Every structure is written in C-alpha cells, then in structure tokens.
Amino acid sequence: MAPAAGTSGTTTGKNEVTPTLSVSGINWWTTEDELRDIISVVGVEKNIKEIAFRENKINGKSLGAVNIEFIDIESSEKAKAKLTQL
Question: Residue ranges of the RRM domain (predicted)?
Fold first, then answer.
C-alpha cells in the first residue's frame, strides 16, 4: 500500500477546519485494520472517530481512497506525517 495522504484539517464550505484526513492511491484490498496498524505507530489509533472507504456506488468496489476522521486535528496531523512517509 503506498497511500498518498491528502490534507488533514480539511476545511468545510464555512471555512471550519475538521480533523479529517483524506488518503488516496491505496490498494483496493486495504482493510480498516491495516490502516489502524499503520496509524498505531504514531500512537493515535485510539483517536480515530471513523474510517470511511470511498466505493463505487454501482458495484461497491473500493475506489482506492478513504477518509479517516479523528477526534482532534493534532491526531490527524500525526497520522498524515506517517502516511506520507510510505
């Protein structure tokens, strides 16, 4: 898996910063457990609020992208730093 971490601290239409990390370029077979294992290296896996894989609406297959929502922006930034090293 060689993910390309997008920006954490994503802004909404109201210019509010959110602690969501967008990761693209991952293999379609990547699991939630694998993502948690990678993020556990920086010690913020318990701060994950939700992991949402982006899927094709017709066939349900992964699009190779995922949104990882954390409870705070600091955790999101730590995970981003680790994922961009891969």
Answer: 22-83
Burial class (CB in 10 A: 0-12, 13-18, 19+), 36: middle
pLDDT at residue 26 is higher than 80: yes
Using CA atoms in the order 5, 24, 4, 2, what is the torsion angle rounded to 10 degrees? 130
Domain boundaries, the chain: 4-83
* CATH classification code of 4-83: 3.30.70.330
End-to-end CA distance of the chain, in Å? Answer: 8
Phi, psi of 81 (to 5 degrees): -60, -40
Split at pLDDT 50, 70, 90, the class of 7 is very low
